Amino acid sequence: MSVIVVGAGPVGLMLAGELRLGGVDVVVYEKLPTPPRESRGASFTRRTAECFDQRGLLTRLPATEPADGHFGGIPLDLGMFSEDHAGARGIPQFRTERMLEDWALELGVQVRRGCEVTGYRETSAGVVVTLDGPQGPFEDTAVFLVGCDGGRSTIRKLAGIDFPGPEPTRGFYTADVTGISTRRRRTGEDLPGGSMVMAMDLEGGVTRVVVHERGMPPRDRETLRFNHLADAWERLTGESIHHAEVRWLNCFTDASRVASLYRVGRVFLAGDATHVQPPAMAQGLSVGVQDAVNLGWKLAATVKGWAPSGLLDTYHSERHPIGEQLARNARAAIELRLTGSDMDPVRGVMAELMSHKGAAEHLAGMLSGLGIRYDMGPCDHPLLGKRMPPDHKLTLADGTRTRVADLLHSAQGLLITTNDEYGQTAEGWADRIKVVASTTAVAPDPALEAVLVRPDGYIAWTSAAGPANNFTTALNRWFGTAAPK
Fold it and tell me: What is the rounded CA–CA span in Å between residue 48 and residue 401?
Protein backbone atom coordinates (compact mmCIF):
# COMPACT_ATOMS: atom_id res chain seq x y z
CA MET A 1 0.00 0.00 0.00
CA SER A 2 1.27 3.49 -0.82
CA VAL A 3 -0.69 5.56 1.75
CA ILE A 4 -2.71 4.67 4.85
CA VAL A 5 -5.27 7.28 5.86
CA VAL A 6 -6.76 7.07 9.35
CA GLY A 7 -10.25 8.51 9.64
CA ALA A 8 -13.19 8.29 7.21
CA GLY A 9 -14.60 11.74 7.84
CA PRO A 10 -14.73 14.42 5.13
CA VAL A 11 -11.01 15.15 5.35
CA GLY A 12 -9.83 11.54 5.16
CA LEU A 13 -12.20 10.72 2.30
CA MET A 14 -11.26 13.86 0.37
CA LEU A 15 -7.58 13.05 0.78
CA ALA A 16 -8.12 9.46 -0.32
CA GLY A 17 -9.86 10.60 -3.49
CA GLU A 18 -7.09 13.11 -4.23
CA LEU A 19 -4.48 10.37 -3.84
CA ARG A 20 -6.32 8.05 -6.21
CA LEU A 21 -6.56 10.81 -8.80
CA GLY A 22 -2.78 11.00 -8.49
CA GLY A 23 -2.50 7.28 -9.27
CA VAL A 24 -1.69 6.16 -5.73
CA ASP A 25 -3.04 3.12 -3.86
CA VAL A 26 -4.70 4.11 -0.60
CA VAL A 27 -6.68 2.50 2.21
CA VAL A 28 -8.78 4.38 4.77
CA TYR A 29 -9.14 2.86 8.24
CA GLU A 30 -12.01 4.07 10.42
CA LYS A 31 -12.63 2.94 13.98
CA LEU A 32 -16.42 3.39 13.80
CA PRO A 33 -18.10 0.24 12.48
CA THR A 34 -20.72 2.10 10.43
CA PRO A 35 -20.95 5.57 8.86
CA PRO A 36 -22.40 8.16 11.26
CA ARG A 37 -25.77 9.80 10.60
CA GLU A 38 -25.12 12.94 12.61
CA SER A 39 -25.31 16.35 11.00
CA ARG A 40 -22.33 17.90 12.84
CA GLY A 41 -20.72 20.41 10.44
CA ALA A 42 -23.61 21.70 8.33
CA SER A 43 -21.87 24.48 6.40
CA PHE A 44 -18.75 25.03 4.37
CA THR A 45 -16.94 28.05 3.02
CA ARG A 46 -16.81 29.41 -0.51
CA ARG A 47 -13.30 28.08 -1.13
CA THR A 48 -14.30 24.61 0.02
CA ALA A 49 -17.25 24.70 -2.37
CA GLU A 50 -14.73 25.61 -5.08
CA CYS A 51 -12.51 22.66 -4.08
CA PHE A 52 -15.48 20.33 -4.52
CA ASP A 53 -16.31 22.02 -7.82
CA GLN A 54 -12.73 21.51 -9.07
CA ARG A 55 -13.24 17.77 -8.75
CA GLY A 56 -16.76 17.71 -10.17
CA LEU A 57 -18.29 17.00 -6.76
CA LEU A 58 -20.39 20.06 -6.01
CA THR A 59 -23.30 18.88 -8.17
CA ARG A 60 -23.41 15.63 -6.16
CA LEU A 61 -24.56 17.53 -3.07
CA PRO A 62 -28.13 18.65 -2.39
CA ALA A 63 -29.06 22.26 -3.02
CA THR A 64 -27.70 24.72 -0.49
CA GLU A 65 -28.51 28.25 0.54
CA PRO A 66 -25.88 30.99 0.83
CA ALA A 67 -24.59 31.58 4.33
CA ASP A 68 -24.81 35.08 5.80
CA GLY A 69 -21.51 36.85 6.35
CA HIS A 70 -20.54 37.87 9.87
CA PHE A 71 -17.61 37.97 12.25
CA GLY A 72 -18.36 37.40 15.90
CA GLY A 73 -22.00 38.23 15.22
CA ILE A 74 -21.23 41.55 13.47
CA PRO A 75 -22.81 41.47 9.98
CA LEU A 76 -20.49 41.52 6.98
CA ASP A 77 -22.04 42.74 3.72
CA LEU A 78 -20.81 40.25 1.11
CA GLY A 79 -22.69 42.07 -1.63
CA MET A 80 -20.04 44.80 -1.89
CA PHE A 81 -17.50 42.46 -3.53
CA SER A 82 -17.11 41.54 -7.19
CA GLU A 83 -16.51 37.87 -6.27
CA ASP A 84 -19.00 35.72 -4.41
CA HIS A 85 -17.62 35.05 -0.91
CA ALA A 86 -20.75 33.37 0.48
CA GLY A 87 -20.41 29.89 1.88
CA ALA A 88 -22.98 27.10 1.69
CA ARG A 89 -25.31 26.26 4.57
CA GLY A 90 -27.76 23.54 5.43
CA ILE A 91 -26.04 20.30 4.32
CA PRO A 92 -25.60 17.84 7.21
CA GLN A 93 -22.08 16.50 7.43
CA PHE A 94 -23.16 12.91 6.92
CA ARG A 95 -24.38 13.84 3.43
CA THR A 96 -21.02 15.39 2.59
CA GLU A 97 -19.29 12.27 3.91
CA ARG A 98 -21.59 9.99 1.92
CA MET A 99 -20.88 11.94 -1.26
CA LEU A 100 -17.13 11.82 -0.69
CA GLU A 101 -17.16 8.12 0.15
CA ASP A 102 -19.13 7.29 -3.00
CA TRP A 103 -16.58 9.26 -5.03
CA ALA A 104 -13.61 7.64 -3.30
CA LEU A 105 -15.00 4.14 -3.79
CA GLU A 106 -15.60 4.86 -7.49
CA LEU A 107 -11.93 5.78 -7.75
CA GLY A 108 -10.85 2.51 -6.11
CA VAL A 109 -10.22 3.59 -2.52
CA GLN A 110 -10.54 0.87 0.12
CA VAL A 111 -12.51 1.94 3.20
CA ARG A 112 -12.23 -0.49 6.12
CA ARG A 113 -14.47 0.23 9.11
CA GLY A 114 -14.27 -1.03 12.66
CA CYS A 115 -10.45 -0.81 12.57
CA GLU A 116 -8.69 1.20 15.27
CA VAL A 117 -5.01 2.16 15.15
CA THR A 118 -3.05 1.07 18.22
CA GLY A 119 0.45 2.02 17.14
CA TYR A 120 2.93 2.47 14.34
CA ARG A 121 6.65 2.31 13.67
CA GLU A 122 8.69 3.85 10.90
CA THR A 123 11.16 1.86 8.84
CA SER A 124 13.64 2.96 6.20
CA ALA A 125 11.07 2.22 3.50
CA GLY A 126 7.77 3.17 5.10
CA VAL A 127 5.44 2.90 8.07
CA VAL A 128 4.11 -0.25 9.76
CA VAL A 129 0.73 0.38 11.40
CA THR A 130 -0.83 -1.90 14.02
CA LEU A 131 -4.61 -2.05 14.27
CA ASP A 132 -7.46 -3.83 16.03
CA GLY A 133 -10.16 -4.91 13.61
CA PRO A 134 -13.28 -7.07 13.54
CA GLN A 135 -11.12 -10.20 13.22
CA GLY A 136 -8.58 -9.09 15.82
CA PRO A 137 -5.16 -7.38 15.74
CA PHE A 138 -3.30 -7.00 12.45
CA GLU A 139 -0.64 -4.90 10.72
CA ASP A 140 -0.52 -2.96 7.47
CA THR A 141 2.41 -1.27 5.76
CA ALA A 142 2.55 1.84 3.62
CA VAL A 143 4.99 4.43 2.36
CA PHE A 144 3.16 7.22 4.23
CA LEU A 145 0.61 7.48 7.06
CA VAL A 146 -1.86 10.36 7.40
CA GLY A 147 -3.93 11.02 10.51
CA CYS A 148 -7.31 12.53 9.67
CA ASP A 149 -8.74 11.21 12.92
CA GLY A 150 -10.13 14.30 14.60
CA GLY A 151 -9.35 16.56 17.50
CA ARG A 152 -8.45 13.65 19.80
CA SER A 153 -6.18 12.23 17.09
CA THR A 154 -4.51 8.95 17.97
CA ILE A 155 -1.92 9.50 15.23
CA ARG A 156 -0.98 12.92 16.60
CA LYS A 157 -0.51 11.47 20.07
CA LEU A 158 1.49 8.49 18.82
CA ALA A 159 3.71 10.85 16.82
CA GLY A 160 4.35 12.96 19.93
CA ILE A 161 3.22 16.17 18.22
CA ASP A 162 2.34 19.01 20.60
CA PHE A 163 -1.17 20.47 20.41
CA PRO A 164 -0.82 23.84 22.16
CA GLY A 165 -3.60 26.27 22.92
CA PRO A 166 -5.38 27.91 25.86
CA GLU A 167 -7.61 25.84 28.07
CA PRO A 168 -11.35 26.19 27.42
CA THR A 169 -13.36 28.54 29.61
CA ARG A 170 -16.85 28.44 28.06
CA GLY A 171 -19.27 25.65 27.23
CA PHE A 172 -21.93 25.41 24.55
CA TYR A 173 -24.86 23.03 24.01
CA THR A 174 -26.01 22.07 20.52
CA ALA A 175 -28.71 19.76 19.18
CA ASP A 176 -30.58 18.90 15.99
CA VAL A 177 -34.28 18.68 16.74
CA THR A 178 -37.68 18.47 15.05
CA GLY A 179 -41.09 19.64 16.15
CA ILE A 180 -40.25 23.20 17.21
CA SER A 181 -41.34 26.48 15.63
CA THR A 182 -38.90 28.93 17.19
CA ARG A 183 -37.85 32.03 15.31
CA ARG A 184 -34.81 31.38 13.15
CA ARG A 185 -31.56 32.98 14.27
CA ARG A 186 -29.26 31.74 11.52
CA THR A 187 -26.04 33.47 12.57
CA GLY A 188 -26.94 33.53 16.24
CA GLU A 189 -28.59 36.13 18.43
CA ASP A 190 -26.48 37.85 21.05
CA LEU A 191 -28.23 38.42 24.36
CA PRO A 192 -27.41 40.84 27.19
CA GLY A 193 -24.48 39.88 29.37
CA GLY A 194 -22.69 37.58 26.95
CA SER A 195 -25.23 34.82 26.24
CA MET A 196 -26.16 33.59 22.76
CA VAL A 197 -28.77 31.39 21.07
CA MET A 198 -28.87 30.16 17.49
CA ALA A 199 -31.50 28.34 15.40
CA MET A 200 -31.00 27.42 11.74
CA ASP A 201 -32.79 25.11 9.32
CA LEU A 202 -31.35 21.85 8.12
CA GLU A 203 -33.01 19.47 5.69
CA GLY A 204 -36.22 17.58 6.41
CA GLY A 205 -37.64 20.00 8.96
CA VAL A 206 -34.65 19.63 11.29
CA THR A 207 -33.55 22.68 13.29
CA ARG A 208 -30.01 23.14 14.60
CA VAL A 209 -30.08 24.91 17.98
CA VAL A 210 -27.08 26.19 19.92
CA VAL A 211 -27.05 27.74 23.40
CA HIS A 212 -24.42 29.52 25.44
CA GLU A 213 -25.56 30.96 28.74
CA ARG A 214 -23.19 33.37 30.41
CA GLY A 215 -21.05 31.55 32.94
CA MET A 216 -21.73 28.15 31.36
CA PRO A 217 -18.54 26.13 31.88
CA PRO A 218 -17.26 23.32 29.67
CA ARG A 219 -18.94 20.05 30.52
CA ASP A 220 -18.57 16.34 29.89
CA ARG A 221 -20.70 15.32 26.91
CA GLU A 222 -21.28 11.90 28.48
CA THR A 223 -23.48 13.47 31.17
CA LEU A 224 -25.23 15.96 28.87
CA ARG A 225 -29.00 15.60 28.52
CA PHE A 226 -31.38 17.54 26.31
CA ASN A 227 -33.15 19.08 29.28
CA HIS A 228 -29.90 20.93 30.10
CA LEU A 229 -30.09 22.65 26.70
CA ALA A 230 -33.86 23.15 26.81
CA ASP A 231 -33.75 24.65 30.32
CA ALA A 232 -31.07 27.14 29.27
CA TRP A 233 -33.01 27.99 26.09
CA GLU A 234 -36.13 28.74 28.09
CA ARG A 235 -34.26 30.90 30.57
CA LEU A 236 -32.77 32.95 27.75
CA THR A 237 -35.70 33.19 25.32
CA GLY A 238 -38.82 32.48 27.39
CA GLU A 239 -39.69 29.68 24.92
CA SER A 240 -39.99 26.02 25.79
CA ILE A 241 -38.52 23.47 23.38
CA HIS A 242 -38.64 20.60 25.89
CA HIS A 243 -41.14 18.79 23.64
CA ALA A 244 -38.70 18.56 20.70
CA GLU A 245 -37.65 15.25 19.20
CA VAL A 246 -33.86 15.10 19.46
CA ARG A 247 -31.89 13.75 16.50
CA TRP A 248 -28.42 14.63 17.81
CA LEU A 249 -27.10 16.20 21.00
CA ASN A 250 -23.61 17.44 21.70
CA CYS A 251 -21.57 20.08 23.47
CA PHE A 252 -18.40 21.95 22.66
CA THR A 253 -16.09 24.56 24.17
CA ASP A 254 -14.27 27.71 23.10
CA ALA A 255 -10.92 25.88 22.88
CA SER A 256 -8.71 26.58 19.87
CA ARG A 257 -5.56 24.53 19.32
CA VAL A 258 -3.09 24.03 16.49
CA ALA A 259 -0.61 21.18 16.12
CA SER A 260 3.00 22.36 16.29
CA LEU A 261 3.88 20.18 13.30
CA TYR A 262 1.82 18.90 10.39
CA ARG A 263 4.48 16.34 9.48
CA VAL A 264 6.96 14.13 11.30
CA GLY A 265 8.96 11.95 8.94
CA ARG A 266 6.53 9.77 6.98
CA VAL A 267 3.57 10.73 9.15
CA PHE A 268 1.22 13.63 8.35
CA LEU A 269 -1.82 15.19 10.01
CA ALA A 270 -4.79 16.92 8.39
CA GLY A 271 -8.13 18.40 9.44
CA ASP A 272 -9.14 18.48 13.09
CA ALA A 273 -6.06 16.41 13.95
CA THR A 274 -4.10 19.61 13.28
CA HIS A 275 -6.55 22.33 14.33
CA VAL A 276 -9.63 22.47 16.54
CA GLN A 277 -11.79 25.48 17.26
CA PRO A 278 -15.40 26.20 18.24
CA PRO A 279 -17.77 25.78 15.29
CA ALA A 280 -18.66 29.45 15.45
CA MET A 281 -17.58 30.30 11.91
CA ALA A 282 -18.21 27.05 9.95
CA GLN A 283 -14.45 26.72 9.39
CA GLY A 284 -13.35 23.35 10.75
CA LEU A 285 -14.61 21.02 8.01
CA SER A 286 -13.73 23.59 5.37
CA VAL A 287 -10.12 24.15 6.37
CA GLY A 288 -9.69 20.38 6.76
CA VAL A 289 -10.89 19.70 3.22
CA GLN A 290 -8.45 22.33 1.97
CA ASP A 291 -5.66 20.61 3.93
CA ALA A 292 -6.48 17.41 2.05
CA VAL A 293 -6.48 19.10 -1.36
CA ASN A 294 -3.13 20.73 -0.58
CA LEU A 295 -1.51 17.50 0.64
CA GLY A 296 -2.99 14.94 -1.74
CA TRP A 297 -1.19 15.84 -4.98
CA LYS A 298 2.10 16.38 -3.15
CA LEU A 299 2.00 12.94 -1.55
CA ALA A 300 0.97 11.36 -4.84
CA ALA A 301 3.83 13.10 -6.67
CA THR A 302 6.30 11.76 -4.10
CA VAL A 303 5.01 8.20 -4.34
CA LYS A 304 5.03 8.35 -8.16
CA GLY A 305 8.62 9.60 -8.11
CA TRP A 306 8.37 12.97 -9.82
CA ALA A 307 8.09 15.29 -6.82
CA PRO A 308 10.84 17.91 -6.64
CA SER A 309 12.97 18.17 -3.52
CA GLY A 310 11.16 19.86 -0.65
CA LEU A 311 7.66 19.56 -2.12
CA LEU A 312 6.31 17.67 0.90
CA ASP A 313 7.72 20.32 3.23
CA THR A 314 5.47 22.93 1.61
CA TYR A 315 2.45 21.20 3.14
CA HIS A 316 3.40 22.42 6.62
CA SER A 317 4.75 25.78 5.43
CA GLU A 318 1.55 26.52 3.50
CA ARG A 319 -1.12 25.07 5.75
CA HIS A 320 0.21 25.62 9.28
CA PRO A 321 -0.17 29.43 9.04
CA ILE A 322 -3.77 28.87 7.93
CA GLY A 323 -4.39 26.75 11.03
CA GLU A 324 -2.86 29.41 13.26
CA GLN A 325 -4.97 32.10 11.59
CA LEU A 326 -8.06 29.96 12.10
CA ALA A 327 -7.38 29.52 15.81
CA ARG A 328 -6.71 33.24 16.28
CA ASN A 329 -9.84 34.25 14.40
CA ALA A 330 -12.01 31.78 16.31
CA ARG A 331 -10.79 33.11 19.66
CA ALA A 332 -11.31 36.69 18.52
CA ALA A 333 -14.83 35.97 17.27
CA ILE A 334 -15.83 34.24 20.51
CA GLU A 335 -14.49 37.06 22.67
CA LEU A 336 -16.15 39.65 20.47
CA ARG A 337 -19.48 37.87 20.68
CA LEU A 338 -19.64 36.69 24.27
CA THR A 339 -17.70 39.12 26.47
CA GLY A 340 -20.77 41.23 27.26
CA SER A 341 -21.22 45.00 27.34
CA ASP A 342 -17.53 45.62 28.11
CA MET A 343 -16.84 44.70 24.48
CA ASP A 344 -19.34 47.20 23.01
CA PRO A 345 -16.72 49.81 22.10
CA VAL A 346 -14.68 47.19 20.22
CA ARG A 347 -17.84 45.98 18.47
CA GLY A 348 -18.52 49.52 17.36
CA VAL A 349 -15.01 49.92 15.94
CA MET A 350 -15.25 46.55 14.16
CA ALA A 351 -18.63 47.41 12.65
CA GLU A 352 -17.24 50.71 11.36
CA LEU A 353 -14.17 49.02 9.85
CA MET A 354 -16.32 46.32 8.25
CA SER A 355 -18.32 48.99 6.44
CA HIS A 356 -15.19 49.95 4.47
CA LYS A 357 -14.64 47.78 1.42
CA GLY A 358 -10.90 47.24 1.85
CA ALA A 359 -11.11 46.08 5.45
CA ALA A 360 -14.26 44.08 4.77
CA GLU A 361 -12.71 42.33 1.78
CA HIS A 362 -9.65 41.33 3.81
CA LEU A 363 -11.85 39.86 6.54
CA ALA A 364 -14.15 38.17 4.02
CA GLY A 365 -11.11 36.66 2.31
CA MET A 366 -10.01 35.04 5.56
CA LEU A 367 -13.48 33.69 6.32
CA SER A 368 -14.20 32.44 2.79
CA GLY A 369 -10.72 31.11 2.04
CA LEU A 370 -10.56 33.21 -1.13
CA GLY A 371 -7.87 35.40 0.40
CA ILE A 372 -5.32 32.59 0.76
CA ARG A 373 -2.04 33.33 -1.00
CA TYR A 374 0.85 30.86 -0.99
CA ASP A 375 4.51 31.71 -1.54
CA MET A 376 5.32 30.88 -5.16
CA GLY A 377 8.67 32.63 -5.40
CA PRO A 378 9.90 36.06 -6.51
CA CYS A 379 7.22 37.97 -8.37
CA ASP A 380 4.81 40.70 -7.41
CA HIS A 381 2.03 39.81 -9.81
CA PRO A 382 -1.25 40.05 -7.84
CA LEU A 383 -2.51 36.65 -9.03
CA LEU A 384 0.59 34.61 -8.18
CA GLY A 385 -0.04 32.29 -5.24
CA LYS A 386 -3.80 32.87 -5.22
CA ARG A 387 -6.40 30.43 -6.40
CA MET A 388 -7.36 30.45 -10.08
CA PRO A 389 -11.05 31.44 -10.08
CA PRO A 390 -12.75 28.15 -11.00
CA ASP A 391 -15.67 29.90 -12.69
CA HIS A 392 -13.35 31.73 -15.10
CA LYS A 393 -14.45 30.82 -18.61
CA LEU A 394 -12.13 30.06 -21.51
CA THR A 395 -12.66 29.76 -25.23
CA LEU A 396 -10.47 26.91 -26.44
CA ALA A 397 -8.69 26.67 -29.75
CA ASP A 398 -11.46 24.47 -31.18
CA GLY A 399 -14.08 27.10 -30.30
CA THR A 400 -15.60 25.30 -27.31
CA ARG A 401 -16.18 27.09 -23.99
CA THR A 402 -15.22 25.67 -20.64
CA ARG A 403 -14.64 26.68 -17.02
CA VAL A 404 -11.33 26.34 -15.21
CA ALA A 405 -13.01 24.09 -12.62
CA ASP A 406 -13.93 21.58 -15.31
CA LEU A 407 -10.29 21.38 -16.40
CA LEU A 408 -9.16 20.44 -12.86
CA HIS A 409 -11.32 17.33 -12.40
CA SER A 410 -8.35 15.00 -12.97
CA ALA A 411 -6.15 16.80 -10.38
CA GLN A 412 -3.36 17.45 -12.89
CA GLY A 413 -1.48 20.70 -13.23
CA LEU A 414 -2.72 23.11 -15.87
CA LEU A 415 -0.91 25.35 -18.28
CA ILE A 416 -3.43 27.74 -19.82
CA THR A 417 -1.89 29.78 -22.60
CA THR A 418 -2.56 31.82 -25.71
CA ASN A 419 1.07 31.38 -26.84
CA ASP A 420 2.13 28.02 -28.32
CA GLU A 421 5.73 28.54 -27.24
CA TYR A 422 4.84 27.93 -23.60
CA GLY A 423 3.08 24.71 -24.55
CA GLN A 424 6.17 23.51 -26.38
CA THR A 425 8.34 24.22 -23.35
CA ALA A 426 5.98 22.18 -21.15
CA GLU A 427 6.08 19.07 -23.35
CA GLY A 428 8.58 17.40 -21.03
CA TRP A 429 6.00 17.53 -18.22
CA ALA A 430 3.08 16.21 -20.28
CA ASP A 431 2.51 13.35 -17.82
CA ARG A 432 1.88 15.88 -15.03
CA ILE A 433 0.53 19.00 -16.74
CA LYS A 434 -2.40 19.44 -19.10
CA VAL A 435 -1.75 22.14 -21.69
CA VAL A 436 -4.86 24.13 -22.55
CA ALA A 437 -4.68 26.39 -25.60
CA SER A 438 -7.05 29.31 -25.17
CA THR A 439 -8.02 32.10 -27.52
CA THR A 440 -9.34 34.31 -24.70
CA ALA A 441 -7.74 35.82 -21.62
CA VAL A 442 -6.16 33.04 -19.60
CA ALA A 443 -6.87 34.71 -16.26
CA PRO A 444 -8.67 37.72 -14.81
CA ASP A 445 -5.63 39.74 -15.98
CA PRO A 446 -6.18 40.05 -19.77
CA ALA A 447 -2.51 40.98 -20.32
CA LEU A 448 -1.27 37.50 -19.37
CA GLU A 449 -0.31 35.06 -22.09
CA ALA A 450 -0.03 32.07 -19.75
CA VAL A 451 -0.62 30.84 -16.21
CA LEU A 452 0.59 27.64 -14.56
CA VAL A 453 -1.94 26.20 -12.10
CA ARG A 454 -1.14 23.54 -9.51
CA PRO A 455 -3.46 20.54 -9.09
CA ASP A 456 -5.00 22.22 -6.01
CA GLY A 457 -6.05 25.20 -8.14
CA TYR A 458 -3.41 27.74 -7.06
CA ILE A 459 -1.44 29.81 -9.57
CA ALA A 460 2.23 28.78 -9.46
CA TRP A 461 3.50 31.05 -12.23
CA THR A 462 2.33 33.73 -14.66
CA SER A 463 3.87 35.00 -17.86
CA ALA A 464 4.52 38.28 -16.02
CA ALA A 465 6.75 36.59 -13.43
CA GLY A 466 10.03 37.90 -14.84
CA PRO A 467 13.52 36.37 -15.14
CA ALA A 468 13.90 35.55 -11.43
CA ASN A 469 10.98 33.11 -11.67
CA ASN A 470 10.94 32.02 -15.30
CA PHE A 471 8.71 29.30 -16.65
CA THR A 472 11.23 26.46 -16.49
CA THR A 473 12.16 27.40 -12.93
CA ALA A 474 8.49 27.20 -11.91
CA LEU A 475 8.01 23.87 -13.70
CA ASN A 476 10.99 22.39 -11.88
CA ARG A 477 9.95 23.84 -8.54
CA TRP A 478 6.42 22.42 -8.54
CA PHE A 479 6.47 19.53 -11.05
CA GLY A 480 10.01 18.17 -10.86
CA THR A 481 12.38 17.56 -13.73
CA ALA A 482 11.15 16.95 -17.25
CA ALA A 483 10.68 13.38 -18.41
CA PRO A 484 13.57 12.15 -20.56
CA LYS A 485 12.95 12.32 -24.29
Answer: 24
